[in-house]
DNA sequence: CTTCGTTTAAAACAGGTGTTTAAATACACC
DNA sequence: GGTGTATTTAAACACCTGTTTTAAACGAAG
């Protein structure tokens, strides 16, 4: 079963696991090919370069997540009942849908994004905006509808703060969970998202302007 | 004037600049020694290893920031008027005080912390807690006083969310500012902290529990 | 001036990186 | 079944990494 998968698929699965655990630069092609039980050169054969592999790994998740998010946003917009919390909730379903590309897919995707933002500065952002800029802008438009009294600049920064909160927590999640587990009970990932992260982020975004 | 400084000082100044710009792993000792106009081997002579250099760079800032923060916290505790916003404001002055170790010191320090949390997982946290755990615990105690109705677990997570927000924004700040500058006016760093980040973070921390 | 511990200097070390090459194999199609 | 393309393989490539070595230069004390 494990040996049955085609080479490029085995590379992708090994790569997304290691990338999400240690980041892109800290993961070598030799680690990836070793875990995938595949020859080193096959990475460059199938994906051209390490950068190409990184993009391929990310794109697999984006192509599932972004359309699903887009659908949720359109659904919400039709209800005419747009609040910050409701917009944020639109992200939950599409994240959970990533389980279909792999077990733990939501967590992996967020970590890939997190490392992407701190390591390959700008590249990931441009890559995302080029391919899914319309979805991002749609979300932004809904946020302005939910907070019509905010200056565009305020909302711009707060949404990036929110992104930062989510990505940072995900990237340093292992270390955090080790500390938390010492004092508190083990958190269910999905509940963690809706019960812990979402209230914090929603309150931050909707905080009154000075 | 530039050539006058002693070797180890020149290494530290070059290292903290490059580390804060590109992260620890992405910065090589050869880049550092080249910028410092110093021989490569002198890093290992003065600091033992690259890890030793990283710790030395960080410690220089911690030794200024942490005592200043501790003083602010004690001052606040004496007032008997403890709110989330006031605790967060305690961080502003000590951050600004880092300008005395170097111009732009506050920004450098936060970036050093940010990269530390995503790269050298856990090490930085243990290092900080070992040396300044009392200050951290003091801050945590004040936050529980300001939010007495919260479960300890809730506050634990929200404070880490807040840390994540600040560090992520700082680390990806260059890219963010480039986007922001295209649409908005240039933000003053100190005002950015107090007028933009602090309201978001304070509202997130104090958000009502579900 | 000489001596001795500290500091700098150039070079080499051992190991790891992404990538490329060229030959061997697998596989589909006529 | 043989042919030709697609894929896999092992090896080498060129470069970069942190660290160590050995010798030279420095600077203060006797």
Give a quick summary of the entry.
Two copies of one chain form a homodimer. Helices cover 76% and strands 0% of the residues of chain A. Chain A has 210 residues and is an all-alpha fold.
3D structure, described in words:
2 copies of one chain form a homodimer. Chain A has helices spanning 7-22, 29-36, 41-47, 50-79, 84-89, 92-97, 105-118, 123-146, 152-171, 173-183, 189-205. Chain A is mainly alpha-helical. Chain A has a single domain, classed as Tetracycline Repressor, domain 2, CATH 1.10.357.10. The first copy, chain A, is globular. The relative contact order of chain A is 0.10. At the A-B interface, helix 7, helix 9, helix 10 and helix 11 of A face helix 7, helix 9, helix 10 and helix 11 of B. The structure holds a DNA duplex (30 and 30 nucleotides).
